[in-house]
Amino acid sequence: MIVPVILAGGSGTRLWPLSRALHPKQMLDLVGERTMLQDTVLRLGAYPGMGAPLVVCNQHHRFMAAEQLREIGVTPRAIVLEPVGRNTAPAVAVAAVKATGPGEDPLLLVLPADHFIARVDRLHAALTAAEHFARRDHLITFGVLPRSPETGYGYIRKGQRLVEDGFEALEIAAFVEKPDAATAAAYVSSGAYCWNSGMFMFRAGQVLAEMERLAPEMVAACRQAVAEGCEDLDFTRLGEAAFSACPSDSIDYAVMEKTDRGVMVPLDAGWNDLGSWEALWQVGPKDAAQNVIHGDVLVHDVRNSYLKATSRLVAAVGLVDHIVVETADAVLIAPRRRVQEVKALVDALKAHKRPEALVHRRAYRPWGFSEAMVAGPRFEARRIIVKPGGKIVMQEHYHRAEHWVVVSGTALVNRGAETLLIKEDESVYIPLGVRHCLENPGKITLELIEIRTGSYLGEDDIVRHNRPA
Question: Is the peptide bond before 441 cis (omega within 30 degrees of 0)?
Answer without folding.
Answer: no
